[in-house]
Amino acid sequence: MSIIIRKNKHTARIMRQQYVRKGAQGNQHGYFRAIPLATISLSATEVPGDIAELLSTKERAHLEKSIIFPARNEAERKKQEQEARERDPGWRVAEAINFLQEAGRRAQLVSVDTRLLARLHETVAALGPAVVEDIDPFDAVSASVRTAISAVEKGAYGRNQGPVRKDAIAAKKWAELRALVLESPNSLVAALQDAGWVVKRDRGSR
After folding, report:
1. Dihedral angle sign, alpha carbons of residues 113, 119, 125, 130
2. Is the distance from CB of 152 to CB of 158 less than 8 angstroms?
3. Domain segments of the chain: what residues?
4. Which terminus of the chain is more exposed, N or C, with fewer CB under 10 A?
């Protein structure tokens, strides 16, 4: 005898086809009838033991081909998709942008803690450089300077009440920025001078 597999949305009914001979039950003609055996989930990746006991080797092979092997393939596909999603930073960045846009609208009414903003900038920087051809590098620097000015005015580094200390964080950061812009051999002003866009002057005349 062979089995019949009838699939529903989430499960499949397993039935065995049985031939009823003419006159066996007062019937005038012989016919086939389906005898219910069991129900199996369409996501089953193994044949349950209680069902396996009901099937012949050939019937089990038919069940595996119809239900078990496709379920294994689907399970593997979902596993790979989940692993790829776990590795992918893109959807997390997209969700973060949505939240940041909401935060930006609310920040017009309530200021954001400068320490949170610092963490935000550090996190964004860790994602890598953004390739935006339309942004002029000087505009980007100017925007960063304006952000720094606002942070200092809002107390990001506190307020010094005594003599200026060169080992203070704010003083060190200013010294580093000044060197990058004005004083080091590879400074911004040096690059502009070499390109002929800024007049070269003696160090003492700056």
Report:
1. negative
2. no
3. 3-87, 166-206
4. C
